[in-house]
Write a structure and sequence with these properties.
It is built from 22 helices and 17 strands. The protein has 566 residues and is an alpha/beta fold. It has 4 domains: 227 residues, Rossmann fold; 58 residues, no CATH class; 79 residues, no CATH class; 153 residues, no CATH class. The strands form 5 sheets. A 5-stranded parallel β-sheet has the order 2-3-4-1-5, with helices on both faces. A hairpin with a 6-residue loop joins strand 14 and strand 15. The N and C termini lie far apart (72 Å).
Length: 566
């Protein structure tokens, strides 16, 4: 069996060493056949962008001797001659910005310059045979030595493509990987400087460049044309919402099943699907996270883990949650954690500074970054969004629990103990813990007097930590009406729980006796509603015999579950 060289994104090395390779070579044909000269392909991290660009490089590059051997057994070599005739015909400029990130513009600029310097060094043969004028040669050497003017670095890709055309008398393929890494690095501190530099660099490379045959750019986001691709009419963008190239990044179901077979993975396929499937690209469903699938295939004996979640920072999302005014965002995340879709407008022209004024852009960021995926398009730019799989769900769970722990000062152990009391039918203990949790949570933010659905969202979120053992549902048809929350245990010998939430207003100056009476009446009303409307019917249909019927009544920010007896 072939071995994986996990983390190696050099196509030539993988093929020559006979390592395991999932054949995405028809990407080459799709690029050649594309109507536009320059293609921007934003995809989530670890979805095969760098390896695919490396494959394009080795196919097109006129400098790679005998590299047809790399493709003889791949799908691309079974295509028509007009495609294969493009092999080894073009000089290639390959540039990656994946490491060009830092906290200051000066350091980030140095890293960008270092990449451009290395690129020129690789093409140092252009300085021979009097190909360049004296002025061009001087600037070429300064770029190599990292001593050129900023404007020279900005024009470096366009000038290099011109020099390559002179040398080979053939147009150039320009491949740029992770173009938006420096931009994401600087969005909060040096955004204007990095946008200005990258705009001039990329516009020089692709705008009105008569020396270019094809250009392919990858990244995570489609940064707005107005901010970086100004006037580039030859650029077409295909995001995760588009049909083009939909099967070229990430693994399809067929590819995934083949990988699991090849590596003799005995795990129940449905469990693997639950953990790592769930992405939709264009109209193509069942796209798997490639990084997670490959990692799991070689380490399945250690069980399911969050491989993809550990490859990047979640700082931006954490920042949004820490803002005390972001109750709405937290409510939306809690819905997502509980497998409820949310409807959002997705803006494909992303501008980072707008996050400060337009909080709805967060959902666009999460979608393009792979934390959410679309399930339905319901308007011109409106989509139903969900968390794609359980691996990503754990990220949101951890963020919510970390927020409760650090900002609201609710310990994870308290959450776990309280939910255990519920599912073990220790209702008195559950009520005490639940009151403490809700009191601390609601003292942190203002619910603005909103109705039961606000409380429901937060109850759902607090119950999310038992999601491994329970199917958690809300506002679904059951019996003769709608329950608020239903907990269906995977182990049918455990308790199932049906929850009905009510709310009553607090009255100033009200006597305790009257208040207690109103609470008790509302608890009884909620209990009767569960019984009369048979909200527990779905539990019975799922062969759950032990059922907890739980009314929760909120008076302001305080919950009551059992009758008040004194």
């Amino acid at each position: 069996m072939k071995e994986l060289d996990l983390g190696n994104s050099d196509f030539k090395s993988i093929i020559e060493n006979n390592n395991y390779f999932v054949d995405k070579s028809l990407l080459i044909k799709e690029i050649i056949k594309a109507q536009k000269q320059v293609i921007l392909l934003p995809r989530p991290r670890r979805f095969g962008k760098t390896l695919n660009l490396s494959m394009l490089k080795y196919f097109f590059d006129i400098n790679q001797l005998q590299k047809e051997n790399l493709f003889l057994t791949l799908n691309i070599w079974q295509t028509e001659n007009e495609i294969k005739d493009k092999y080894a015909k073009f000089p290639v400029i390959f540039l990656s910005f994946k490491d060009a990130k830092d906290k200051t513009w000066n350091k980030c600029y140095e890293l960008i310059v270092a990449e451009l310097s290395d690129l020129y060094t690789k093409h140092n043969y252009l300085t021979e045979n009097n190909l360049l004028t004296n002025e061009e040669l001087e600037i070429f050497q300064k770029i190599k030595n990292r001593s050129a003017q900023e404007t020279d670095f900005q024009r470096s890709l366009k000038k290099l493509s011109e020099y390559l055309y002179r040398y080979y008398n053939q147009k150039v393929v320009i491949l740029i990987d992770e173009y938006d890494t420096p931009i994401q690095s600087g969005y909060n501190s040096f955004y204007d400087q990095v946008i200005s530099f990258m705009r001039n660099l990329l516009s020089g490379a692709f705008k009105d460049n008569s020396f270019i045959y094809k250009g392919v750019i990858t990244g995570i986001l489609r940064v707005s044309k107005e901010s970086i691709f100004t006037g580039l009419n030859n650029v077409t963008v295909h995001t995760v919402l588009d049909d083009e190239f939909s099967d070229k990044f990430g693994f399809t179901e067929t590819e995934t099943k083949q990988i699991l077979h090849d590596f003799n993975v005995p795990t129940d396929y449905e469990l693997i699907k639950k953990w790592y499937n769930g992405y939709k690209i264009g109209q193509l469903t069942d796209i798997y996270n490639p990084w997670s699938i490959l990692n799991y295939a070689i380490s399945f004996k250690s069980g399911f883990r969050t491989f993809w979640a550990n490859t990047s920072s979640d700082d931006l999302l954490k920042e949004q949650l820490k803002d005390r005014d972001e109750n709405y965002i937290r409510e939306q995340l809690l819905k997502l954690i509980n497998n409820e879709p949310i409807e959002k407008d997705i803006d494909q022209n992303f501008v980072f500074p707008d996050l400060e004024t337009d909080k709805e852009l967060l959902w666009s960021l999460l979608t393009f970054s792979g934390y959410l995926t679309s399930v339905n398009k319901i308007g011109r730019k409106t989509y139903e969004l969900v968390i794609p799989n359980y691996e990503v769900k754990t990220i949101f769970q951890d963020i919510i629990i970390n927020w409760l722990n650090t900002d609201v000062n609710i310990k994870r152990t308290t959450l776990i103990e309280t939910t255990k009391h519920l599912i073990n039918n220790e209702i008195d203990k559950f009520e005490k813990g639940f009151k403490r949790i809700i009191g601390d949570t609601f003292s942190y933010f203002d619910t603005h007097g909103e109705p039961e659905n606000v409380y429901q969202s937060y109850v759902l979120g607090l119950l999310a930590i038992i999601g491994d053992d329970y199917i958690i549902k809300s506002n679904r048809e059951s019996g003769e009406g709608r329950y608020d929350i239903l907990l269906i245990p995977h182990d049918k010998t455990k308790y199932g729980v049906v929850i009905e939430i009510k709310q009553i207003p607090k009255k100033k100056g009200e006597k305790q006796e009257n208040f207690n009476k109103r609470i008790n009446n509302k608890i009884k009303e909620a209990s009767e509603q569960i019984d009369n409307n048979k909200y527990f019917k779905e539990l019975i249909e799922n062969n759950v015999e032990k059922i907890i019927k739980l009314p929760i009544v909120f008076a302001g920010k305080e919950p009551y579950i059992t009758l008040i007896t004194k």
